[in-house]
Design brief:
single chain; mainly alpha; elongated
Amino acid sequence: MPPTHVKISLSHCQDFIVLPISDIAPHSKMVEAVSTLSANEDTLSITVDIESCRPTKATLEALIEYIALIRSQAPSVVRQASNDLSALVSQTELAFLSRQVQQDDREEMKRLLQLGCFLQMESLRNLTAAWWACGITKIVEEHADHDECVARLREFVGVENDWSQEELAVLREQAKWAQ
């Protein structure tokens, strides 16, 4: 008998969720593939081991919320670049993204993107990648000054500037030459 539930646990702590496999398998190539190989188990166990993002219990709860959302509505298909996220996704998905950003700012969005990639959930990956792409596109369009744009992009993605003043001076000189 094939498994009826999937237990998704985090490798770095005791947090986990249990979902009906019928809710997640159609949206996760990984769960779908592994569930067909686990014919003798009631519950399929998947341990999320993503050292770079360290998903949290809140990330798993967001996954539950997202699965409920796509169960009631087909996920949007994002195929074009824009700085207006509302032109790319449904209002329900936009509300979902807004809740995630309000709770943990961009760190939760990083974890959700990586969880979507780990579980091979194309719709979650596309949704969170669209959020990142729209933010980056908006920053690039709003800042004509290269240094200001780069500083703002670093701030947006949470990357520290580790360049020395000498390296930045060389980069500015090269940018002038390229124009």
